[in-house]
Every structure is written in structure tokens, then in C-alpha cells.
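Support request from a user on the community tier.

User writes: "When I paste my C-alpha cells into the form, the page sometimes reloads and wipes my input. The last time it worked, I copied everything first. Here is what I submitted, just in case something in the input itself triggers the reload:"
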């Protein structure tokens, strides 16, 4: 049975609801479509606001071949298959949903085809593309921000659903919409799924009343609304991570309970906490990584239902821990330097010299073996020419990292400004 959200998916810009700043009269996307020439682009916005639909409308309007991939279950192999097919087509569009879930290698595999115009890429993401899309690909795409639906757009969707059911001989009267608005949270797909769920559960005599009570009762009876494969899955893990990052154990354990009730894979939860321990706590509390790793091991051995206790212990510990993203940001800063300056040569004095030829070329000349010096420290350069004195790592203001900063100041204070 075709879902209501799919039945009501608009086929043209005139039927499309919302995003008038992009597709309204004289707006940028409508102007591009009218010209018949579109760039590769990335749609950035929350779930359920029409990113996929807009990509399909663009393809239909321009009569272009349309290929679609989901970054959740596709990789380099699938990308190359589409590119090979597109070489035999004229002006093919490749739509990639959740493009931020592609790793660097997967995103790199798109560059040549986008550069040559073999494909016109349309990516959709709920995450900031500045952080999640590699700069080389981002520079080849226009980024368009799609906005969350407001009450006016949501009521238009409710009216469209009512009209659809009327055409099927089912009368749906919406006397209250507060619960629908609250449940959907600006997400059109959630709104239409909720309406469909209530109608399907209430269709006794083709006369259905949608009010706050009927909507809340039916939705609460259907915990399957937590969809492990859909947007709710990512919404809730996001809320879980942000609660721990915000040092709120109550929020963290609530969202943990939501995932457990929805049957989420416990190893997925443990894996995300293992990442969090390094990304958001790091050296401010190295024990966090040890506990998160121990939790992952325990969960893999125990499984549900008992492992939920291990998950709760770790989530509360991580939420209550002192926070620091200094090591994560150090890596991001260094990666940016690599992207900007490329593969700079390793300084000769810190190169390995296993052969006479290499020694004769100066490999290792002037290297100071730290343990030969007082305090096991020797002042010398470890960065390549052009990056001398670059400051990537900046310890946060936490007790443990303040000790680190004092040590760095003693060794490198004048050079790096610690």
C-alpha cells in the first residue's frame, strides 16, 4: 500500500508547498529552472521539508535522467555504476540523500564526474555541509538552505490529506490540529504519517474526527513511530549526543530509554558513546574513553535486556564528565592545513635513514634524540617548511588540560604561544 506521504508528493513547482524563497516567482531556483541550466547543488535543511521532492521536480521539469542513491546504504561502487550509466545519457541528475554520511573517499569519487559535467549532483543533508562535505566537492556545488515548515504550510498539507481521503469516499474532519503540529515538529512526512495512522486505525464508518485526543491516543499506542531506519532514528541519537555534550544526564538517559524502547541496536548506541568520549571529552578525562570502550565490550557480550544497565552507566558518566573538544579540533585544524597546503615534504632531520644513500642525502642530520636531553625534551622543528609555528592543538580550560598547557608552555611557550 502506497504511503500517504508518497501519494501526496507534488509533481511540479506549482504544487510544491513551502520554500518560496527558493522556488517562488523570481526566486533563484525557479529562475535557474526556467533557464534550463542548473548547477550541482546541495539542499541543506531538517528532515521532511521536501529536499527529495524538489530534486525530483527539477528532474521532471528539465526532463533529465534521474538517479538516486542513499548515502546510508550506498558506497563508491554504487556511485561509479551511476556515473558509468550517466556517460551514456544527456544531462543526468544524481540525487544523493544524506550525503553527509558519505566518507571522504566516497565524496572524492564524485569529483571527476561533477567537474566534467557527466552528472549534475543534487545532495541532501540535515547537517551543516561546511563541516560534513569535503571542500573540493563543496566548491563545485551551490548550497541552498531549505526551511522547516511553519503552521501555514502544515495546514496546507492537512487540507491536502483531507481532500485525498474525500476522493476515496472517506470523510475526515479535523477539529483540532495542536497534537498533529506538536508530533510533526515541522516535518511534513511525520505529519502525513500521523494522519494516515489515525485514519487507518479509525476507519470504521468512513466518518473520522481528528482531534488532539484521537491523535495522541493512536500515536502513543504505536511505539513503532521510532523508526530505526528513518529520520527519527537520527533525531533521537542526535538528542542523546547533544544531551551528553550539554552535561545533562537526565536528558541523556531519557533519550537512551527512547532508543531502548524502540529496539535500537545497543552496539550502535555504545559505538556512538565511544566516539563521543574522544570527540567531546578527550584528554580532559581520559578515563571516559576507557569506560566507553569497556561498555562497548560489555554490550557486545551481554546484549539486551541486561546491557541497557551498562549503557545507562556510561551515558550518565559521559554526561557528568568535564568536557573538551581540544583534541578533536586539533585534528580538524591539522586537516585544514593539509587541505590548504597539500603534501609538504617531511623535514630532512626527522626522516628515517635506513640506508647509506639516505644518510648521504642528509636524512636524519641534526635530529635531536629527546631522551638525551634534560627533561627528555629537545627544542627542534617537527612541522614541514611553511608551517613552522602553526598552532593546531589548544587545550581547553579544564583541570587536567591546564596541567597540559603548563607543560606545553614550559617546552614550547615562545614558539607556539602556549
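"...and here is what came back when it finally went through:"
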Amino acid at each position: 500500500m502506497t504511503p500517504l506521504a508518497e501519494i501526496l508528493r507534488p509533481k511540479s513547482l506549482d504544487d510544491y508547498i513551502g520554500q518560496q524563497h527558493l522556488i517562488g516567482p523570481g526566486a533563484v531556483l525557479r529562475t535557474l529552472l526556467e533557464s534550463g541550466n542548473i548547477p550541482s547543488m546541495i539542499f541543506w535543511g531538517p528532515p521532511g521539508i521536501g529536499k527529495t521532492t524538489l530534486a525530483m521536480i527539477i528532474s521532471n521539469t528539465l526532463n533529465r535522467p534521474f538517479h538516486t542513491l542513499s548515502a546510508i546504504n550506498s558506497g563508491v561502487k554504487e556511485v561509479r555504476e551511476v556515473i558509468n550509466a550517466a556517460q551514456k545519457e544527456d544531462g543526468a541528475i544524481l540525487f544523493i540523500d544524506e550525503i553527509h554520511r558519505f566518507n571522504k573517499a566516497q565524496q572524492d569519487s564524485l569529483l571527476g564526474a561533477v567537474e566534467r559535467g557527466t552528472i549534475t549532483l543534487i545532495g541532501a543533508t540535515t547537517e551543516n555541509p561546511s563541516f560534513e562535505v569535503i571542500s573540493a566537492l563543496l566548491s563545485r556545488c551551490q548550497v541552498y538552505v531549505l526551511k522547516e515548515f511553519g503552521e501555514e504550510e502544515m495546514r496546507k498539507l492537512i487540507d491536502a490529506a483531507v481532500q485525498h481521503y474525500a476522493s476515496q469516499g472517506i470523510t475526515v474532519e479535523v477539529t483540532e490540529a495542536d497534537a498533529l503540529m506538536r508530533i510533526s515538529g515541522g516535518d511534513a512526512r511525520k505529519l502525513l504519517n500521523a494522519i494516515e495512522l489515525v485514519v487507518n486505525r479509525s476507519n470504521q464508518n468512513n466518518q473520522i474526527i481528528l482531534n488532539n485526543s484521537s491523535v495522541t491516543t493512536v500515536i502513543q499506542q504505536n511505539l513503532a513511530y521510532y523508526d530505526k531506519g528513518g529520520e527519527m532514528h537520527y533525531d533521537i541519537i542526535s538528542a542523546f549526543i547533544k544531551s551528553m555534550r550539554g552535561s545533562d544526564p537526565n536528558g541523556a538517559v531519557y533519550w537512551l530509554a527512547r532508543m531502548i524502547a524502540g529496539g535500537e541496536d545497543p552496539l550502535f548506541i555504545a559505538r556512538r558513546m565511544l566516539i563521543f568520549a574522544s570527540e567531546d571529552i578527550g584528554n580532559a578525562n581520559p578515563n571516559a574513553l576507557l569506560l566507553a570502550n569497556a561498555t562497548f565490550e560489555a554490550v557486545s557480550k551481554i546484549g539486551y535486556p541486561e546491557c541497557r544497565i551498562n549503557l545507562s552507566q556510561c551515558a550518565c558518566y559521559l554526561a557528568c564528565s568535564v568536557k573538551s573538544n581540544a583534541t578533536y579540533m586539533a585534528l580538524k585544524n591539522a586537516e585544514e592545513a593539509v587541505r590548504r597546503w597539500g603534501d609538504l615534504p617531511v623535514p630532512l632531520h626527522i626522516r628515517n635513514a635506513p640506508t647509506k644513500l639516505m644518510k648521504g642525502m642528509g636524512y636524519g642530520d641534526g635530529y635531536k634524540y629527546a631522551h638525551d636531553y634534560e627533561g627528555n625534551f629537545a627544542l627542534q622543528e617537527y612541522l614541514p617548511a611553511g608551517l613552522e609555528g602553526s598552532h593546531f592543538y589548544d587545550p581547553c580550560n579544564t583541570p587536567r588540560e591546564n596541567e597540559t598547557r603548563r607543560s606545553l608552555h614550559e617546552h614550547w611557550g615562545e614558539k607556539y604561544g602556549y
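Agent notes: The reload is a front-end session timeout and is unrelated to the input. The beta strands are 41-44, 66-70, 93-97, 120-125, 142-145, 171-174, 207-210. DSSP finds 20 helices and seven strands in the chain. Escalated to web team.
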